[in-house]
Design goal:
This protein is α+β, with helices and mostly antiparallel strands. It has 14 helices and 14 strands. A hairpin with a 2-residue loop joins strand 11 and strand 12.
Length: 425
């Protein structure tokens, strides 16, 4: 029999893997050749400077009544936002400078919010109302400006013309029609940013999902619920309605649903309104009101928007509610504003409510609105609004930006840097 050998000074390693000592010296080898240097890394970026443009249309009604307001006193537009800053148009019926003796009207655009060294391009246009297109235009756009864009140093800085138009010529021109002037103003705020390289560019078409869903309604296929409105029947799809409206979802799929329900009768809504409501829920857009009603008048359009606002609130369709609110803001009129104001109060449309209150509170509108049937309804349904209306009447004529903030350094036909801009006919 053989005798097993043991290592001296330690236990046997038979049957166990061998690990070399960590400190064991590596076998000698020849040095490897040096690696070639890595190619230099190349990067690129682009600085882009452009203008963010916006326009405001200012109608000056009752020009003959504004004359005599006094030299240096102005009529101001509502403020508007371009490039993150507030702006306002200032029209001086008797001119801005006493040295001109009220012989000229003055026109300026002013920075109406806080800002430092705001660089911008401007365009002021007096619209030719004869339809001949002979507008009076003063512009920075499309011209080579030696000193670059104009810089406004602080809130209240102005650009414009003390001698914009000789008053005697203006009053016999085609710019004045029905005692109104139309002024268009464009502001281009200069902004810069740096862009990295564009790795890829794949054009992606706009989503057409609403087209596919909308065709479900027009095809009438696979409908599983019918609505009766004013004795007119409207087939629809439960799953689409439930996806769009939490109210319909609770009614059609909630714990209190009727499994055998095939027809729902809608009360307090006219058939054209429900048809427009369904159109929006499938197509995600307002229908063509003329195609829907066979009528093409502002009054019909406003009436439909009023009904849709109430319906949208009833079925928790926030986007439709906002679209209806926007439409009503655009179409405020003497004979409909009282009803719209009542709706705005009842359905918590704060912006629409403000627009209506301002419209009613103006002296030229107040008496006429108070003689409408809608105003009688407003008094009965929302008496608390009368107090708010009185507050707006008291504030008419106030302006947010005091005249003392505005610079008097702008010269006629140019700016504080001495640059001049020629009119374009």
């Amino acid at each position: 029999m053989g005798v097993g050998r043991t290592s001296r000074g330690g236990p046997s390693t038979a049957g166990r893997p061998y690990f070399p000592p960590i400190s064991a010296p590596a076998a000698a080898s020849s040095p490897s050749p040096p690696s070639p240097p890595a190619p230099p890394v190349e990067t690129a970026s682009t600085s882009v400077t452009k203008t963010v443009n916006g326009s405001h249309h200012f109608k000056i009604a009752g020009y003959s009544l504004a004359k005599g307001i006094g030299v240096g006193k102005y009529i101001a537009s509502e403020s508007f936002t371009v490039g993150g800053f507030e702006w306002a148009i200032y029209f001086y019926p008797d001119g801005k400078s006493a040295e001109d003796g009220a012989a000229y009207v003055s026109l300026f655009i002013a920075l109406a919010s806080e800002g430092t060294d705001v660089r911008a391009l401007f365009e002021l246009t007096l619209v030719d109302q004869s339809g001949k297109g002979q507008d009076k235009v003063h512009t920075h756009f499309g011209r080579s400006l030696e000193g670059g864009p104009y810089t406004l140093k602080y809130r209240g800085s102005m650009w414009g013309y003390k001698r914009f138009f000789k008053r005697s010529g203006l009053e016999t021109s085609d710019y004045l029609k029905d005692d109104c002037l139309l002024v268009n103003c464009t502001v281009g705020v200069v902004q810069s940013h740096t862009e990295g390289p564009e790795i890829y560019s794949i054009p992606v078409p706009q989503s057409d999902m609403s087209q596919h869903i909308g065709h479900l309604l027009t095809s009438g296929k696979r409908t599983d619920i019918t609505f009766e409105v004013d004795e007119e029947m409207f087939p629809a799809h439960k799953v689409v309605l439930a996806a769009r409206s939490p109210v319909f979802r609770a009614q059609l799929f909630g714990p209190m649903k009727d499994k055998n329900m095939k027809c729902i009768k809608i009360e307090d809504m006219e058939a054209p309104v429900f048809k427009a409501l369904l159109h929006f829920m499938y197509w995600d857009e307002l229908p063509n009101i003329e195609e829907l009603t066979g009528l093409n008048t502002t009054w019909v359009s406003t009436l439909m928007a009023q009904h849709l606002l109430a319906a949208a609130d009833r079925y928790a369709l926030e986007r439709l509610k906002l679209l209806s609110e926007l439409k009503l803001c655009e179409d405020v009129a003497i004979n409909t504003v009282a009803n719209t104001l009542a709706l705005a109060e009842q359905h918590h449309c704060h912006q629409l409510k403000t627009v209506c209150l301002k419209f009613v509170a103006s002296p030229e509108n107040l008496k006429a609105v108070m003689q409408t049937e809608g105003f009688d309804y407003l008094q009965q349904s929302c008496p608390s609004l009368l107090t708010e209306l009185l507050e707006y009447v008291a504030k008419v004529g106030d302006h947010a930006v005091p005249p003392c903030l505005y610079s008097n350094e702008v010269l006629d036909g140019g700016d504080a840097n001495g640059r001049r801009v020629k009119p374009r006919l």
